[in-house]
C-alpha cells in the first residue's frame, strides 16, 4: 500500500495545471464533504485528486453526513461539493436551494440510483430458477429455514430503527408472506444482516431478505433480486410503502433512489470546467459494489482506495476526462 504517498499534501504537490484545465487562481479553495460511508469517501478522494491535479483547485476534505452536510450547504453555502447525496432525504430543501440559485444538482453519482429489493443467493436460483419470482419463493417457502423456529420460514428484514424496516415490513405485509409461513426476522444490526448472508453463502443454504446496493455485501456475494411481478408504483411507494402508518400497503417494486452530486452555485460559477467533470463522474452499482468489497477486504480507507481505483479502473475514470488530460493523469500516477 502507498497510503503515505496519497495524502492531501502529496496530491497538492502534484497539482500542476494541465492542458485545458482551469488555473488554481480560477478554481481557488474548494471544500468537499467526506461523508461517513465508504462509497462516499471513495468519491470524495477521487474528486480531490482530479480537482487538484486536473483543475488546479486547492481542495480540503471536511467531515460530513447526509443531514448535517445538506443543511450546511442549503443554509451556509458550504461545503462546495457533496459527492454522494441520497437526495430524497432532503428533497424539498435541495429543490428550494436550486430554485433560489444557491445549489445545483451536478449529476448522478450512481448512474442507476440506489437499488433496494428482496434478494436470494444466485446459487439458489441456479438450482431453482422459479426463485427469481415472488411466486416461486412462496411455493418453496419451506426451504427458507427459520433460525429459531423450525415451523416457520425466514424473511430477513431491517434492524429496528432503520428506515428500511418500515418499507420492508410494509412489503412483507403487502406480499402476504406470513400466510405462506414466513416470519419477519429482525437481524438486530447491519452486521447481523451481512453476517446472515455470509453464513448462508459459506454453507450454500437458503436465504431470503432485504438488501441494498451499492454495498460491499452485493460486491462479495452474487445475489438475484426477486421480481414481485408488479412493476414500480412510485406513488404507492412514496405515499404508503415508506410510511409507518400505511394501513393497506400494495405490492410494488422499489423505485431507484436518486443519488446525486450536489454543489453550491458559487462553486459552479467560479469553476465551470471542474463542475462539468462532476456532472460527468458517475459509477454503476456493480462497479461500486466491487470497489466496496475490495475496501472491506483490505480494510482500506479513502486514501488507499483512491490509489487502487485510479490504478486498476482506468476503463471507468478515463471516460470522465479528455484524452490529453487522461495521459497527464497517468503520468502523475506513474510518478507516485
Automatic annotation (TrEMBL):
Q: Which UniProt keywords apply?
A: Signal
Q: Which CDD domains match?
A: PBP2_HisX_like
Q: Does the keyword Signal apply?
A: yes
Q: Which domain of life is it from?
A: Bacteria
* Signal sequence bounds: 1-24
Q: Which InterPro entries does its entry note?
A: ABC_Gly_betaine_transp_sub-bd
One of the record's GO cellular component terms: ATP-binding cassette (ABC) transporter complex
Any GO molecular function: transmembrane transporter activity
Q: What is this protein called?
A: ABC transporter substrate-binding protein
